[in-house]
């Protein structure tokens, strides 16, 4: 709603929550579940066009495939990296996939 509220929300989501994630041990099953939920959201809703940034029709399929491939690649990379970083990558992927949901677009943006 306001610029200040947006900045506070971003600080919370991108700084404070990731810091808390490094303090707790989250099981691999939860991380896999969150990663798969993120992947399914990307498959269903990517790419997201807005009024200010429309996507040309000829690029929609390519961007959709690229989004899916990058999400799968991130999940594969998570197999090979160390624990705190895995949690941060999965959290970032989850946050980005949430921004694709229709609840974050006003009627004028679509």
Number of helical stretches of at least 4 residues: 4
Question: Distance between the terminal alpha carbons, to the nearest Å?
Answer: 18 Å
Radius of gyration: 15 Å
Shape: flat
Q: State mean pLDDT (0 to 100 scale).
A: 85
Biggest beta sheet summary: none
The tally of beta strands, per DSSP, is 0
SSE order: HHHH
Structural class: mainly alpha
Poorly predicted tracts of residues: none
Task: Please describe the topology of this protein.
Elements: H1 3-23, H2 28-45, H3 57-80, H4 83-98
Helix pairs in contact: 1-4, 2-3, 2-4, 3-4
What's the short story on this structure?
Keywords: Cell membrane, Hydrolase, Membrane, Protease, Quorum sensing, Transmembrane, Transmembrane helix, Virulence. With 110 residues, this protein is mainly α.
Tell me about this structure.
InterPro entries: AgrB (IPR006741). It comes from Staphylococcus caprae. Pfam families: AgrB (PF04647). This is AgrB. Keywords: Cell membrane, Hydrolase, Membrane, Protease, Quorum sensing, Transmembrane, Transmembrane helix, Virulence. The chain is an all-alpha fold. The chain has one domain (26-104). It is built from 4 helices and no strands. The longest helix is centred in the middle third of the chain and has 24 residues, at 57-80. The two termini are 18 Å apart. The mean pLDDT is 85.
């Amino acid at each position: 709603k306001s610029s200040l509220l947006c900045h506070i929300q971003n600080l919370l989501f991108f700084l404070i929550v990731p810091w808390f994630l490094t303090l707790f041990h989250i099981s691999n099953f939860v991380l896999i579940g969150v990663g798969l939920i993120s992947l399914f959201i990307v498959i269903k809703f990517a790419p997201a066009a807005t009024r200010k940034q429309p996507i040309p029709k000829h690029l929609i399929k390519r961007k959709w495939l690229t989004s899916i491939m990058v999400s799968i690649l991130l999940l594969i990379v998570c197999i090979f990296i160390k624990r705190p970083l895995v949690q941060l990558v999965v959290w970032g992927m989850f946050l980005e996939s949430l921004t694709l949901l229709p609840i974050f677009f006003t009627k004028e943006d679509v």
